[in-house]
Amino acid sequence: MTNDKGRIVSCPTCKKANCYHTGNPFRPFCSERCRLIDLGEWADEERRISGQAIPPDYNDPEVDAY
Questions:
Q1: Which domain holds residue 11?
Q2: What is the CATH number of the domain that holds 21?
Q3: Could you tell me the pTM of the whole model?
Q4: What would the pLDDT profile of 5-57 be if each residue is shown by its tens digit?
Q5: Is 64 exposed, middle or buried (0-12, 13-18, 19+ CB in 10 A)?
Q6: Which of 18, 35, 41, 52 could form a disulfide with 30 if both were Cys (CB 3.0 to 4.6 A apart)?
Q7: What gap in Å lies between CA 22 and CA 27, rounded to an integer?
């Protein structure tokens, strides 16, 4: 769905509908509060990108297996 200012999207945090356009400094969020809540979730490791864990010796200069 779109309007004259941009696409209507749901805020990833509160699910409130908002316009995704350059005039919204918090996009894709609806507000600074929702943006900071999301940042806090990443900082507290409540959110993460899935994948394999990095081996503990990955940065060890003595190990040349990678």
A1: 2-43
A2: 3.30.50.10
A3: 0.67
A4: 689 999 999 999 999 999 999 999 999 999 999 999 999 999 988 888 888 88
A5: exposed
A6: 18
A7: 8
